[in-house]
Amino acid sequence: MPPGLAVPAALETGAVSEPVQAPLRKRTRRSDRTRDQARSLSMLDRYVAQRYVLWSRYDLGIQMTWNSFYEVTPEPISLHIASRFRSKLKDSMLIADLFAGVGSNAIALAGSSDDARQTVEPYVIAVECNASKCRMLRHNARIYEVSHRVDVVIADAFTLLPRWQAVFDAVFASPPWGGPNYRRRPTYNLDAMKPYSASEIFELGWHLSPNVAVLLPRSSDERQLARIAEIRSLEIEENWLHGRLKTLTVYSGALAECNSESAPRFDDKMR
Ligand code: MGP
């Protein structure tokens, strides 16, 4: 554990691990508790060790909640997604980030391009229901010098945005997947994702713009994605980092390569 990082209360109580349902109501033995704590700590160590992959400017004072360590999109992936947005949205770039967290994606999306031919500046409405994360997002956006292109709104996107029909040029969502426990099952059930399922997120996204991208677990159930692709075609992109598959980004509308003439559609590939 690096100096200055205390063990969060949630990990001390084992709240991050899945609740164990013992058949008989046995008292938890001390050794079980210690094992749980050790497991939680090694999980936290793993995420903390990746801090410079999450933020190249981490040492300039990036602020995160403990949950953010596993929710934040690693910077190379968020920059890659942002460059896809820039290359596909040429005329206007008003973007909604539905679950903005401490800002990894909103900040990348608000970044300007190195390409001098790109004249349109992006503007991001970053929606986040946790007030502390909103404060941290504003702070982190200042560190990346994009705060003039990010508006942070404290709200649940599903309460705030339904009345804003077709307002945005594109929508991005990196929703909660239920914490690191998503790794325990070989296939991730997108219909059971809480508080909002993948279908609900695409539905809200498409209400706001045809151009939607959603960051999902690498183990997402492809049959469930194929069902969503029956409504509008999707491209599923694997995001690899240092030789490991980290996440999937699912694009629709103008953001998807499959909507160009030559590329195969996702529903074609599934047959
Ligand atoms: P991971 O698979 O939990 O960890 O998260 P790790 O150590 O990168 O996996 P390993 O097998 O390579 O060792 C991988 C990435 O998924 C994280 O960096 C986040 O970008 C993303 N991620 C993980 N979780 C639990 C969430 C989540 O709940 N919501 C969102 N939006 N992203 C998540």
TrEMBL record:
Domain of life, per lineage: Eukaryota
Catalytic activity: a 5'-end (N(2),N(7)-dimethyl 5'-triphosphoguanosine)-ribonucleoside in snRNA + S-adenosyl-L-methionine = a 5'-end (N(2),N(2),N(7)-trimethyl 5'-triphosphoguanosine)-ribonucleoside in snRNA + S-adenosyl-L-homocysteine + H(+); a 5'-end (N(7)-methyl 5'-triphosphoguanosine)-ribonucleoside in snRNA + S-adenosyl-L-methionine = a 5'-end (N(2),N(7)-dimethyl 5'-triphosphoguanosine)-ribonucleoside in snRNA + S-adenosyl-L-homocysteine + H(+); a 5'-end (N(7)-methyl 5'-triphosphoguanosine)-ribonucleoside in snoRNA + S-adenosyl-L-methionine = a 5'-end (N(2),N(7)-dimethyl 5'-triphosphoguanosine)-ribonucleoside in snoRNA + S-adenosyl-L-homocysteine + H(+); a 5'-end (N(2),N(7)-dimethyl 5'-triphosphoguanosine)-ribonucleoside in snoRNA + S-adenosyl-L-methionine = a 5'-end (N(2),N(2),N(7)-trimethyl 5'-triphosphoguanosine)-ribonucleoside in snoRNA + S-adenosyl-L-homocysteine + H(+)
One Gene Ontology term of the molecular function aspect: RNA cap trimethylguanosine synthase activity
A family per Pfam: Methyltransf_15
CDD domains: AdoMet_MTases
InterPro entries: RNA_cap_Gua-N2-MeTrfase, SAM-dependent_MTases_sf
Cellular compartments per GO CC: nucleus
Family statement drawn from the similarity comment of this UniProt entry: Belongs to the methyltransferase superfamily. Trimethylguanosine synthase family.
Name assigned to this protein: Trimethylguanosine synthase
The species this protein was found in: Cyanidiococcus yangmingshanensis
Designated gene of the protein: TGS1
